[in-house]
Specification:
The chain is of the alpha+beta class. The protein is 21% helix and 33% strand.
Length: 745
């Protein structure tokens, strides 16, 4: 019996048990070793949302107000705010006034922190290739910032920074180590080793020379809402002697603590509070919805936070908050010069066969005409591209990828991924990356995001990625808060089918799509828009899709994103791909993008970790997933391409969409044209952007790939990219590599 759902079983008697298996209700009579099936028929009425909004792309040349103010931090005197926007650092008076630009570089700068004397700011600067520096700038001379050497693990993790009271050192968490870095001599020493395994952040450095940090440990399981314990530790930076402060764990959720260790602000179940740290039982509620990104003035009299896209400043003793208005705008990149691609064959993404040699005219960033070669003269004042021997196809779309603060979007473009759907990350940062790309300050796919994920089990260290909602009454408010962040869809992560259904109803009332890990019939009946992953339920990784579930998915018009490559690679640590095909690491695009030693390391990890035991675990599940996808496709359920890659996935992230398409062809049995359609037009339809993206058709945005060979007969030819066209702008591979190395596009 290899297909049993992990649902609660019911004992009918001491010898008879009721359970579900193979899509049926079954009763096992233990005394007779007999299993009987209980026949039943259920009618599930399905309601499809009729008012889902089409997502709109920015218009070239438009002037727009900056909406994403990332990592806002209040100055020690409470008069100035520093923040990241468009990839650079800025500051402005909290009572209104001119915005001052502090940095202007091709590097993505974030997480600024004031020194206690208000003279300097420490921050992280991350290149497109993933290399990160810790830097310090002087407010008097911001152009002369300097890099501070830190361990590579610190650079990668970008932990929260706090300054020493004398502004001569900083402290941060490096795994379980609480470390101090002296800025004068660059020496790093360990202050303490956390006795519990996960350190969320170092949060304050008091005038008494004590460093405070929040640590968490799991006492139950990840599925147990009470299993996490958060503890606030205070450790002497000289002696290393540590003590704990008796603060309830919920008061430490994404907390901001004043430098004097006197006051705390926190977000508990998406409701904000502030209190004296010594007496959190008398906390004051923050009236604004969904407050986060807390920072204090040095004396604890002022509290800065963000709420639904606004910056708010609370005068603690007066109990009154006001808007902090930041007047900052940007111009969307203008449309490039018109181009005409001559004598190119087209795979348009609709499933039609590759065309005869054709000419394609692109102007104002959109496809203006398509005709067989020679039918029309070359348009005047256009740049001509010879497409002889090449194939033109739509830009690829990754329908499930997690950015997690990663800045290497240009490598996605390098591999032809020109749109990406992120189902869970820090909203402000994703919003900022979208604005940065629209302004032409970075090279990136078009980003569509859910932002904060809704859950009901209280992740203690989610760094602003989750909204903890445990009552139906608060669902609508939480959905409204996420919608105010300009989220393109909603991602619930509820174990409770009632809560899941409430989210779908609340989102659909606003015209917003919903994606869920779960394939609950109650959710599908309400028109669930996306089913994430091939698994039928997140708790049950062994079952294929049964007829009832397939029929309901089709009736609901749900899009399934199976992320087959995730299960093949386990986020890059193991791989069932490499034993089948070691040539992956010889790919030309990878060889140009990665240093040989990095590719060798990725290959070694993939091969070494795939033990026979691991293969025995993964391969059967892989075969079941293929069978499920075959059944879904045969039934007419929309299936699209997603990788579930993260910033740590390396080559698997970069090549992920191509590997996923290959698995659709070689594992599921689709034709190459069907796999390409899944990665282009179907993906765009599911997102609600098919009016602009997803196919090579007149009137659509010119997000296109020029590849060598014929992907309609050999799916691997999608990797043979000659040029990328993004919004009508042509990018050769060498130009993309330059952007990856950190040069302005």
């Amino acid at each position: 019996m290899d297909e049993i759902y992990l649902a609660p079983v019911s004992w009918l008697s001491p010898s008879r048990v009721l359970f579900t298996a193979h899509g049926q209700l079954q009763v096992a009579s233990l005394d007779r070793s007999v299993i009987d099936t209980i026949p039943f028929v259920a009618n599930v009425p399905v309601t499809r949302a009729e008012n889902l909004r089409a997502l709109r792309l920015p218009t070239p040349g438009d002037r727009r107000k900056v909406q994403a103010l990332v990592d806002p931090q209040l100055s020690p005197d409470g008069r100035t705010v520093v923040f990241a926007a468009l990839g650079d650092l800025w500051c402005a008076p909290v009572d209104g006034g001119a915005v001052r630009r502090l940095t202007n570089s091709p590097i993505d700068e974030r997480r600024p922190v004031w020194s206690p004397d208000g003279a300097r700011i420490a921050y992280y600067a991350t290149r497109e290739n993933g290399g990160t520096q810790l830097r310090v700038l002087s407010l008097a001379h911001p152009d002369s910032s300097r890099a501070i050497p830190v361990d590579s693990s610190v650079a990668f993790a970008r932990p929260r920074i706090v300054w020493s009271p004398d502004s001569r050192a900083i402290a941060f968490a490096n795994g379980r180590l609480i470390q101090r870095l002296d800025l004068d001599d660059g020496a790093t020493r360990t202050i303490a080793v956390s006795p519990v395994p996960y350190v969320e952040a170092v949060v304050a450095w008091s005038p008494q020379d004590s460093v405070a940090y929040i640590a968490s440990r799991l006492t139950g399981s990840t599925l147990n809402p009470g299993g996490w314990q958060n503890v606030l530790w205070v450790v002497s930076s000289d002696s290393g002697v540590a003590r704990t402060l008796d603060v309830p764990r919920e008061r430490l959720s994404r907390a901001g603590i004043s430098g004097q260790l006197r006051r705390v602000a926190y977000n508990y179940r998406d409701i904000g509070h502030h209190a004296l740290l010594a007496d959190t039982t008398t906390a004051n509620r923050i009236a604004d919805p969904s407050p986060r990104s807390f920072s204090w003035s040095a004396d604890g009299s002022r509290l800065l936070y963000s709420s639904n896209g606004r910056l708010r400043l609370l005068e603690v003793h007066r109990g009154r908050a006001q808007d902090v208005r930041i007047d900052l705008d940007y111009r969307v990149s203008p449309a490039p010069r018109p181009i005409q691609i001559r004598n190119v064959r087209i795979i348009d993404g609709t499933g039609r066969q590759r065309s005869a040699p054709s000419d394609v005219l692109i102007a104002n960033g959109r496809i203006r005409s398509m005709s067989l070669t020679g039918r029309r003269p070359v348009a005047p004042d256009v740049d001509v591209i010879d497409g002889t021997g090449l194939t033109l196809l739509p830009g690829l779309i990754d329908s499930h990828v997690h950015s997690f603060g990663w800045s290497g979007f240009a490598s996605s473009v390098y591999f032809g991924v020109l749109a990406a759907r992120d189902p869970g990350d820090v909203t402000e940062w994703l919003r900022s990356q979208r604005e940065r790309a629209a302004a032409g300050l970075s090279l990136a796919p078009r980003l569509f995001y859910a932002g904060r994920v809704m859950d009901d089990w209280g992740q203690p260290f989610a760094d602003g990625r989750f909204v903890d909602v445990r009552s139906a009454e608060r669902v609508d408010e939480a959905v409204g808060s996420i919608a105010a962040d300009e989220a393109d869809f909603i991602k619930p992560y509820f174990w409770d089918p009632v809560q899941d259904a409430h989210v779908i109803d609340a989102a659909h009332r606003r015209g917003i799509r919903v994606g869920s890990h779960f394939s609950l019939l109650s959710s599908l009946a309400r028109g669930l828009d996306y089913k994430e992953h091939a698994t039928t339920y997140s708790l049950d990784w062994t079952s294929t899709y049964q007829d009832d579930l397939i029929a309901t998915l089709r009736a609901a018009n749900t899009c399934v994103v199976p992320t087959l490559q995730l299960y093949a690679t386990s986020r890059g640590q193991t791989s069932t791909v490499v034993p089948h095909d070691p040539s992956i690491f010889a790919d030309t695009l990878l060889a140009e993008l990665y240093r040989p030693r990095d590719l060798a390391l990725a290959r070694a990890l993939a091969q070494a970790n795939m033990t026979e035991a691991m293969r025995a675990l993964w391969m059967p599940r892989e075969r079941r997933d293929y069978e499920s996808m075959r059944r879904l496709a045969a039934a007419g359920v929309r299936v699209t391409i997603g990788t579930d890659a993260t910033e740590t996935s390396g080559p698997w992230r970069d090549m992920g969409v191509h590997l996923e398409m290959e698995r659709f062809v070689r594992g599921v049995g689709m034709t190459p044209l069907e796999a390409i359609r899944a990665a282009t037009l179907i993906a765009a339809q599911c997102l609600g952007v098919d009016g602009d993206l997803g196919s090579v058709e007149v009137g659509k945005v010119a997000d296109l790939l020029l590849v060598e060979g014929d992907p309609s007969s050999e799916i691997r030819d999608t990797r043979r990219i000659r040029s990328v066209i993004l919004g009508g702008a042509v990018w050769e591979r060498a130009e993309i590599l330059a952007a990856i190395r950190g040069e302005r596009p």
